[in-house]
Amino acid sequence: MKLKGKKVLITGGNSGIGLATAKLFIEEGAEVAITGRDQKTLDEAVQLLGPKAKAYRADVTDSAARKVLFAAITKDFGHLDIVFANAGVAGQTKAGSTDEATFEDIIRINLTGAFLTVESALPILKDGSSIIFNGSVIGTLGQSGYAAYAASKAGLRGLSRSLAADLAPRGIRVNVVSPGPIKTPIWGRTGRSPEETGELAKLIAATIPLGRLGEPEELAKAVLFLASDDSSYVNAIESFVDGGATGTPFGGPAFRQ
């Protein structure tokens, strides 16, 4: 097992990529703390993950809640070996029609929250540990109407590189995994009908060289690589898990007619 005896924090571990990663990490021998803002999905996640998981309801952007969270993690786990800063939100911020609060909220959750999660974890993070941020291809490719989301994910790339320099004396590696379109519950929160969502997924899949959306488990395996000793000399990188969408954006079936 690649993570035997390791103690892990996964923010947003109650669904989607975070939950798939928690499941894989436990299978690889880790004990996992997951956080989320919804108690119902946290309870469901712990029931699925079993006794090696512990859930904490917390908003990582709330300083008081974060203090309580890390006090509890310290009591329950003692230390951490891996942090996967996965919590984040999407949201439209169309140029010319976006209010300031919406833009700032996305940046606060996706970027500021990720930084402060790591900042709070550092006192209990062992030397030689691994930190992974969950980025996005949108942070490189951009997308109409998603300026704040793109900025927040591009910000994680810059953040990870600076933190990698700061933490190198402790042997702590800092990397980013950036997924393309992945089949997660977020697809059901777009406001579109199931039929519209299905058609959109087909359109997007046609632009991806591998011709399909990714699975959460595929992303989890990439996070496992960055978390484990298999990547012991990998530091300050952004790893795209996107079916080739970033490397060859015109390589999908839609462009091979």
Descriptive notes:
42% of the residues are buried. This protein has a single domain, classed as 3-Layer(aba) Sandwich (Rossmann fold), CATH 3.40.50.720. The mean pLDDT is 95. It is an alpha/beta fold and 257 residues long. It has a 7-stranded parallel β-sheet, sandwiched between helices. 42% of the residues lie in helices and 16% in strands. The protein has helices spanning 16-27, 39-49, 63-77, 100-121, 138-141, 147-167, 194-205, 216-227, and strands at 7-10, 31-36, 53-57, 80-85, 125-134, 173-179, 238-241. Strand 1, helix 1 and strand 2 (31-36) form a beta-alpha-beta unit.
How many domain units?
A: 1
Which strand order does the major sheet show? 3-2-1-4-5-6-7
End-to-end distance = 45 Å
Main sheet: strands, sense, barrel: 7 strands, parallel
Mean pLDDT: 95
Sheet/helix structural class: alpha/beta
The H-and-E topology, N to C, reads as: EHEHEHEHEHHEHHE
Q: Unreliable stretches, pLDDT < 50, 5 or more residues? A: none
The geometry reads as globular
Which descriptors would you attach to this protein?
257 residues, alpha/beta, Rossmann fold, seven-stranded parallel β-sheet, 8 helices
Question: Brief overview, please?
Answer:
The chain is 42% helix and 16% strand. The protein has 257 residues and is α/β, with parallel strands linked by helices.
Question: Topology, please?
Answer:
Layout: E1 7-10, H1 16-27, E2 31-36, H2 39-49, E3 53-57, H3 63-77, E4 80-85, H4 100-121, E5 125-134, H5 138-141, H6 147-167, E6 173-179, H7 194-205, H8 216-227, E7 238-241
Parallel strand pairs: 1-2, 1-4, 2-3, 4-5, 5-6, 6-7
